[in-house]
């Protein structure tokens, strides 16, 4: 028979876990997640600005008609 899912942790054998310790671990994980989300948002905004600038440059180059083709 399979053992219940433990999510990589060894199930406790003695006293039940301390709720305060669990809350502190959760707070630390949430803080880490919030930090990572903030960095991701900043990276996505930066990428969006770069794409917008590149699009603007390409549009300006097209307006200059520097294609070297027949006028």
Question: Would you give an account of this structure?
Answer:
- The structure is a single chain.
- By secondary structure, the protein is mostly helical.
- It has a domain at 33-63.
- The chain has one helix and no strands.
- The protein has one helix at residues 19-64.
- The longest helix has 46 residues, at 19-64.
- The chain is rod-shaped.
Write the SSE topology:
Layout: H1 19-64
Mean pLDDT: 86
Number of helices, counting only DSSP H or I runs of 4 residues or more: 1
Envelope shape:
rod-shaped
Low-pLDDT windows of residues: none
**First-to-last CA distance:** 80 Å
Strand percentage lies at under 5%
Order of helices and strands: H
- Over all CA atoms, what is the radius of gyration? 27 Å
Keywords:
mainly alpha; about 70 residues; single chain
Give a short overview:
This protein has 71 residues and is mostly helical. 65% of the residues lie in helices and 0% in strands.
